[in-house]
Amino acid sequence: MSRIRLSRWLVAIPMALLALATVYPLLFTANVAMKTRRDYILDRFSLTDALRWENISTAWNSVGMGRYFVNSLLVVTSSVVLLLLFGSMAGFALSQLRFRGSTALFLGCLAGLFVPFQVIMVPLARIMADGGLIDTYPGLILVYVAQFLPFTVFLMTSYYKTIPPEIIDAARIDGNSVYGVYRRIMLPLGTPALLSVGILNALFCWNDVLMALVMMPSADHRTLMVGVTSLRGQYSDDIPTFASGVLIAAVPVLVVYLFLQRQIADGVAAGSTKG
């Protein structure tokens, strides 16, 4: 029993230190956001003596974080819907339909996972500028869909490969077309994977800075993360306001991780262990 307890402590202590190292930056940011500028200059590490919401109100209303929040919500929601639609269709076709070139097409999608955005950033920006899509919501949505679609196709294909082909054959015998099989069979069966992939893609799009910065240069169309980075230069001497902006951007992500962590883990496992 003592040996078992010792092994548990050897695991618990590093995990507790890791959890503390993860939570401390958030707690420090929340503490700074509740301070006045004077309190922060005098002692940045001391605990605030009162909950002051003025900095968060200033960041939300005066600085424009509320508008940036709406911009991010619009772009992320539209991108995730398109990614799930195209990714589920492609995953169904590549995993269950038999056609020439399916393997090569799947490998091509996998190759897209190894191309970072920095490599294609300049030519992509020129193509978008020629098409009049710079500084527009559709332009950024298209970039997100193109960037994260290979990841979505990979996970959905891996998940759909676990579905027995006899189910598809039975549905075809019952008179369902390919679209009918996709809508009536594959979508309901793929709901766990769709939920997990949707959450992961939403987090990817929400936390992005580089693509949004390239595609949305004007202040009116900034996303929330780009707005937070702009606060650091505009309010370099007002750290509590900057911390309030960081807190506003972090809260939605924390809520998603807190309530949907099992779905996130299941989505990662679906793409790594199945198929």
TrEMBL record:
Residue ranges annotated as transmembrane are 68-92, 104-125, 137-156, 193-219, 239-260
Please report the record's description of how this protein sits within the membrane. Multi-pass membrane protein
Where in this chain does the record put each ABC transmembrane type-1 domain? 69-260
Which CDD domains did the record assign?
A: TM_PBP2
What keywords were assigned to this record? Cell membrane, Membrane, Transmembrane, Transmembrane helix, Transport
Could you confirm whether the keyword Transmembrane appears in this record?
yes
Query: Does the UniProt entry include the keyword Iron-sulfur?
Result: no
Among InterPro entries, the record links this protein to: MetI-like, MetI-like_sf
Q: Where in the cell is it found?
A: Cell membrane
Q: Which PANTHER family match?
A: ABC TRANSPORTER PERMEASE PROTEIN MG189-RELATED (PTHR43744:SF12), ABC TRANSPORTER PERMEASE PROTEIN MG189-RELATED-RELATED (PTHR43744)
Q: Which family does it belong to?
A: Belongs to the binding-protein-dependent transport system permease family.
Recorded protein name is: Carbohydrate ABC transporter permease
| Annotated organism of origin | Plantactinospora alkalitolerans
